Amino acid sequence: MLPFVLEGGSVSQMPVAEGKSVQQTVELLTRKLEMLGAEKQGTFCVDCETYHTAASTLGSQGQAGKLMYVMHNSEYPLSCFALFENGPWLIADTNFDVLMVKLKGFFQSAKASKIETRGTRYQYCDFLVKVGTVTMGPSARGISVEVEYGPCVVASDCWSLLLEFLQSFLGSHTPGAPSVFGNRHDAVYGPADTMIQYMELFNKIRKQQQVPVAGIR
Amino acid sequence: MEAPPVTMMPVTGGTINMMEYLLQGSVLDHSLESLIHRLRGLCDNMEPETFLDHEMVFLLKGQQASPFVLRARRSMDRGGAPWHLRYLGQPEMGDKNRHALVRNCVDIATSENLTDFLMEMGFRMDHEFVAKGHLFRKGIMKIMVYKIFRILVPGNTDSTEALSLSYLVELSVVAPAGQDMVSDDMRNFAEQLKPLVHLEKIDPKRLM
User: Fold this and answer.
1) Is this entry keyworded RNA-binding (chain B) (predicted)?
2) Chain-wide mean pLDDT for chain A?
3) Chain A contact for B62, CB < 8 A?
4) Is B3 helix (H, G, I), strand (E, B) or coil?
5) What is the pLDDT of residue A215?
């Protein structure tokens, strides 16, 4: 089973509703899903830590410091995903985290930039929907919506179906096609594609200012 | 910098420190068959297992004195198997009575684009080789009898040449830190392989 996944849901695409908090907007969404007939199926969590090349390594390598993201997804509990933005990615087992501890003289973790999204999983026929609250430390920074269409592994084959489903509960906030597909519409979709989308989403949210409680876009 | 020496504490920072216990020796090519025969008798009963692996050793140089070493290994005869990334720490100095070489080890299974990813992290390949041989198990002990081949053209694993007229024999166990009785069991097993092969604790630093 390889899912087709789409992220809508940075603050600009899944805006916090007027006069409401992140928490309330999440509740609005989940209530819509439940009215559609979706069933709750446990929770999910996707987290991301940022590492940058330590100053001591930079000089000798002669390259600008790069950011490496190490992510985990509760959907794949035994795996660890390591990514460079616009660069190669690696799927490894969870011992990769142990290796990063050994590498701490060369790669420093920016503790303050740890970001994660947590929420509920909903199953609606062949669709798996995950609505999560994105947090950095103690503050809620946005909402992530992930939709998976189980039976299909090639993006271009089911994009319109996914779009239709998204419109049924996101309405006008339905996002466009993720950049991950680019010109790879016919390629087989994999878990790394999901993680790349989450990484882009987290980066977007990190750059935005904190959402005030009043919830203006 | 190399990670600080792993103490005998079994757990650091929430993860169990795994240690590799190692004994090594070698046999000349013409003695291979007798050794294999004895190993088949002593080891766990299973289909004879051979392997053909390509290993690349990567270094990350920083301002620290010694570079960080990682070993990336892939199977050349089993398609679809994950790549194996391995970190090996400095050998633990200490008990002269300890029978095996002990060093911290971290083993990670990865997807195929490991070399590209390591290069992006700043690692550079130092050397590579092909290992071809036999694998045996006895309980948690792993015995490998293999020949090392030098790769003549970088990246081309088809043209190789044997490094020597002998096979390297390695007896190893990966176990949580603090289990020194493991090296006693290894010593006892190694006794049974004498005089075909003498397995000993070889400190790599002494060879340099």
Assistant:
1) no
2) 79
3) yes
4) coil
5) 34
Q: From A78, which residue of chain B is nearest by alpha-carbon distance? A: B109
- The CATH class of the B16-193 domain is mainly beta
In a domain, A157, yes or no: yes
The CATH code of the domain that includes A140 is: 3.30.310.180
Give the nearest partner residue to A90 out of B63, B64, B113, using CB atoms. B113
In a domain, A36, yes or no: yes
- Chain A positions contacting chain B at CB under 8 Å are 53-54, 56-57, 59-61, 63, 66, 68, 82, 84, 87-93, 95-99, 101-107, 192
Domain coverage including residue A135: 8-49+115-206
Q: Is B4 on the interface with A (CB under 8 A)?
A: no
* A6: confidence class by pLDDT, cuts 50, 70, 90: very low
Q: Look at chain A and report how many structural domains it folds into.
A: 1
pLDDT at B93: 76
* pLDDT, tens digit (0-9, with 9 covering 90-100), for B172-205: 999 998 787 898 999 999 999 999 999 999 887 7
Backbone angles phi, psi at A73, to 5 degrees: -135, 125
Scanning B90-109 for CB atoms below 8 A from A yields 106-109
Q: Which residues pair with A19 in a beta bridge?
A: none
Does A117 have pLDDT greater than 80?
A: yes
> Rounded distance, CA A155 to CA B137, Å?
45
From chain B, the residues in CB contact with A92 under 8 A are 85, 108-111
Q: What is the DSSP string of B100-113?
A: SEEEEEEEEEE-TT
Residue A124 included in any domain: yes
Contact B113 A88 (CB under 8 A): yes
Cβ of B14 under 8 Å from any chain A Cβ?
no
- The answer to whether residue A104 is domain-embedded is no
Candidates A68, A95, A188, A195: best to mutate against B (most CBs of B within 10 A) is A95
B67 vs B64: CA distance, rounded Å:
7
How many other β-carbons are positioned within 10 Å of the β-carbon of residue B108? 23
Beta strands in B29-81 (DSSP E): 49-60, 68-75
Q: How far apart are CA B135 and CA B53, in angstroms?
A: 12
- Dihedral (C-alpha) B4, B5, B10, B11: value to the nearest 10 degrees? 0
Report yes or no: B46 at the A interface, CB cutoff 8 Å. no
ipTM of the modeled complex: 0.88
Residue at A216: amino acid letter: I
Residue in B74, B120, B124, B174 to test binding to A, most A beta-carbons within 10 Å? B120
